[in-house]
Design goal:
single chain, 6 strands, about 50% helix
Amino acid sequence: MSVDRSGGVADRTAPGEPSGATDSPAGRLQALFEGHRLTPTQRRIAHSMVRRAADVPFLSSVELAELAGVSQPSVTRFAVALGFDGYPALRKHLREVVPAEPAAEAGAFNEYQQAVEAEIENLRHLAELLADPRPVQKAGRILAASRPLPVLGLRAAASQAYGFCYFAAKVHPDVRLLDEGGTMIQDRVDAAVRAGASALLCFALPRHPREVVDTLAYAKDLGLTTVTVADSAFAPVAKHSDLLLPAAVGTGLAFDTACAPMLLGRVLLEAVCDDLPDAQARLEEFDTKAAARGLFVE
């Protein structure tokens, strides 16, 4: 049910934990980037490479620059920052450590189909990352133990946070949705801490609101363990997240699509249920009451 650091998960609570997903192309790429201090532009290149791990060894520096939306010299500087003489040396290394066939041509698909195909690829990538269940299981334990459990999601991520809270409230005794920004959001975090919260779950999607980054930093200062579902291990929220679980968004349409983050949220919810001994009893109680009230049309 989860992802390991080498496959794209940033777990800052256990930096020495062994890697378990480095056999995938994305995992080997992630391992290559770890330990390097990258600029925002370089993180963007790294993120694009992880998302297209199967294609990257076959791309020229110009093609990679176009994929990441940066300049060609930025790609060269990125290769040097990783310790290579230039991009040709990096690509040669990638062909040795990330052997893969180029992806099939997408020319036969129209733009709507391409968006769906991209989301399917994001889900395949997520499935690779979930090969090692330990990080998500760890996140489930952390979140299940927090009473109350505040869940943060602003702007584009508000629906992800709401969906998680809607279902989590059926099994967790006290879930608190934080989906509106403004001057009161830190007050609500304070209230959760006073009530006994030990962790905060955050959904963070592009474009990343500054308020989300600030609220995560504030939560950490208060001693909360921060678990974040984000579009990338290189997202701006990473440095304020004790455990970051990545799931890529689709960018082929006018507005981003977030099938993989939504599914990862449900997987995380499953892990929370696994650590709530009365979760099944609560669900059965809800079903009984729903039937008595005629809540759903059968």
